[in-house]
Amino acid sequence: QLAAQKFGGGGGGGVGGGGGGGVGGGSSPPLLSKLILYGSIYDPNVVYPRAPLYSEADLNPPPSSAPPAPVLNTYDAAIEDFTVEGSIPPEPARTFAEAALVADPIKAVWKDLHQFNNCDPGRVNVPTLVIAGDQDPYAPLR
Length: 142
Hints:
Strand order of the largest sheet: 1-2
Shape: extended
Strand content: 5-15%
Number of domains: 2
Structural class: mainly alpha
């Protein structure tokens, strides 16, 4: 609702909402008119496990339960997060890792991949440009 009000969409429920609007479509004006997809790790054949909604530690948190401190990215972590071994020659991989460290000095936290389980590309009803490399192992063109 807030996004619809802020960005001029109807009163719909956004993505997948019952009231229309958003990517899912409906009678309200869409929030998106075009979409560009690139760099995805979405795989329709993978079901990602979801972490428990709560754990024993959540029921009895320590007195100082501050969120974990960000972890600085490293060269090896940048290579691991953004390339698949054998999919890119070593020199461009090194160049990419160096650029990734400058652009993204904090390591990504990959804890909510289960949200991909709800992805339904068939519900996208706006013109969409999909960008994928011809040797991208995450987005095979064949």
